[in-house]
Amino acid sequence: MKAWDVFNQVRGRVKDETGVLGGTGSLKAALCCPSPYSVGMSSLGFQTIYREMNLHPGASAERAFLPDQPEEYRKRRLPVFTYEGETPLGEFPVVAFSIAYELELAGLLEILDLSNIPVLRSGRTEKHPLIIAGGPLTLSNPAILAPFVDLVILGEGEDLVHTLLDAVRETGRRELLSCFSRAPGFFVPGLSSSLLSISRVSPDRLPAYSQILTRKAVWANMFLIEPERGCSHACAYCVMRRAPDGGMRLVPAQKVLSLIPEHTPRVGLVGAAVTDHPEVEELAGKIVSGGRRIGISSLRAERLNENLLRILVRGGYRTLTTALDGFSGRLRARLGRKTTEQHLIRAAEMVRSTGMQRLKLYQMIGVPGETMEDIDEGIRFSLELGRIAPLSLSIAPFVAKRNTPLDGAPFEAVDSLERKLAAIRSGLKGKVDVRPSSARWAWVEYMLSQGGEDAGLAAMEAWKNGGGFAAWKKAFNVPTF
Ligand code: SF4
To answer: How far apart are CA 128 and CA 94, in angstroms?
Structure first.
């Protein structure tokens, strides 16, 4: 790949986009996704913050992404540059990162390094951009960002990004950091004495919705919109669990519908608990009535009914995806997960009666207190479900998150998880499609979820040493499992 090919790739992507903004403000900011383009452009949070930054009357924001092939940039000494203005990140006064989860930390380091910006906060001066981070990771463990970023927006950033851009325009960096170190919703590494409160967006900024559509996103040309934010349930392992104020904020169906562009062929309803929205059937019905296709996240089995599923089928939805998140009733009760076997049996029957093709079920293993009896119960039940409708099990190891009741719970040994996975595969062989995610990478996620600044520094060591699993083990000083 030549340098020219890199520019052509970026230009080709921009040409394929609709909805690109060009803010008019004099403060230039870069908004970076520490994952590749196709992932970033499917992130509603990334797209929403991009719009908010461009709506600020004094600012304009351009996007950058983790290059698909960072080694090509390194070989050619190409800095990461923005898609809109092809400007290297090092030339912006403000560079913001939207970080979804722990493993994206390596992408942040890679982007800074390729841009010739020192990755360590302590190695930078006022000549370097102000490095800001926000996004879903900040709901659980922003501490791992502390060695690398100058400031973190904690929680929902749509309002606070405006406050921050105002301050950058009006104040010097030192004063700004000192002021925000005591402000709710912000965390200034090295200055804030604790992680203060998580911010919540004001209701008039909801719903979040797509700004740019492209065929080259993971959800190709799909207009994403969030009819509700948060969740009113209280599963003990989930960072989205009920907030003190009740958790879930609803957007009226009429408002959601009014924001969907007339000629959009595909609409995705996104949120932590979309099927808890009291108007979800009306909303989905009106979306598909114009011949549009529909996607929907977070279907909760206990909220499903045949009418909703028939609407989804009319909108091209073929795999009913939901979660059980515990291999036995005993474990689910312990986790506060209210979904029961009966709910799933009904869901599988509806897959069959509505002409859907498959039921896909998210499951966790390695939940604290789990035994082989729990696994056997899950195998028995999966076989039962698989006799009703074709079934896929997507299995991920349990990773304890900060700010949840299970914070601090241990990670099950990788070999023990692998033994359980082998038993599940063998018990379901030929009957149920089993798709496990890697126990090893879940362990890395766990180390970052539970660690502080030291875990962030270990991540830097692992990234410097190639970012393979052996590098992570060495960085965390764990010779064997
Ligand atoms: S797992 Fe789902 S239902 Fe439970 S708290 Fe999280 S978002 Fe809500």
So the answer is: 9
